[in-house]
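Anyone opening a protein record will find just a pair of labelled lines. With that in mind, the following record should read easily:
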Amino acid sequence: MSLHADKATPYQPDTLPLEKLDYRLLFALVGEANAELARYDGLLQGIPNPAVMLSPLTTQEAVLSSKIEGTQATVDEVLEQEAGLEKEGEKYKDIQEISNYRSALYQASEHLKSYPIRLSFILDLHRILLSSVRGQGKTPGEFRKDQNWIGRAGCTMEQASFVPPSPLQLQDHLQAWQEYLDFDDSDFLLQVAVAHAQFELLHPFKDGNGRIGRLLIPLFLFQKKALSQPMFYLSEYLEANRDEYYQRLSNISKEGDWNGWIAFFLKAITVQAKQNSARVKAIMGLYDDMKQRIHEITRSQYSVYLLDALFSKPIFKTSDLASQLERDFGISKRTVPALLRQLKEAGVLLELTPGSGRKPAVLCFAELLNLAEGKEVF
């Protein structure tokens, strides 16, 4: 096992699969994490249209994974921006990064229905992730060709807290990492813990390593058939425990402490699976309640289509929603304003900005956003 004694020396990653793990320490944690993940996936399998119903959770994951890297935007702000309430300056750039993350997640989910995770696929995800003003100088869609290091801003390589592997050896390490993804290790949760950490330690990009690494967690679990949909989001726990997250990764390179990292990761899976399950149950409950309520309010044959549209885009321009309903379900645009007015008067929808002249109103389905962000709904 190669310990990272000299800070200025590039890290030599351990060979995968790992030979020495403390299975006595990890056995109970693996069992509990597997049980909670299976309960969560059971809920997922019961959702008729998970991509629609859990769309706000996907946005929340993009927000939190990006927040770990320093962005400051909220789910509401991302959706407001997309509904035409333009933000400016750094906030706009933050939202662009979050939107890119979500786009990468959606495209990855589609890709993995037919193909396994490959390095070329990860380069495509990186290109999507960094397709913005901030990412242009960070060689989007390319593995690094230079030596990089991690430390305080402006520090030299000798002052760095971590120096990833040499770019001369990076491609070989990445190839070995890809082969490990195809290997069936003793348990898929142990394996995803190892794969995530190894990717972060290889640090193959100039920027975006953390976000790509976290994005790969649900994709790997989906590929291994541990999930029926690639929709298990871990960033809430990792963001709440950011210091320990980084310290546990650091301890692998400094002390060879894989057991401590894996124990932390398995606890993250267990806690997050419980929280995700509770949130999915709440969202499914809201969907069922709203299916009945919207029909009672509108008495419309289109009430279910309207509900699906609200779940897929909880903040929207009235004109955009009308176009979406006409495009997807053939509902006349003239029908929609009256339906929305009824829902607004009943308190289901809130008006963020009123319409004036040709400018459409922007409305919000607040109850769903509150559930997605983990807020209590009163």
Notes: The beta strands are 315-317, 350-353, 362-364. The chain has two domains: 23-278, 299-372. Residues 299-372 form a domain with the Arc Repressor Mutant, subunit A fold (CATH 1.10.10.10). The CA atoms of residues 154 and 331 lie 57 Å apart.
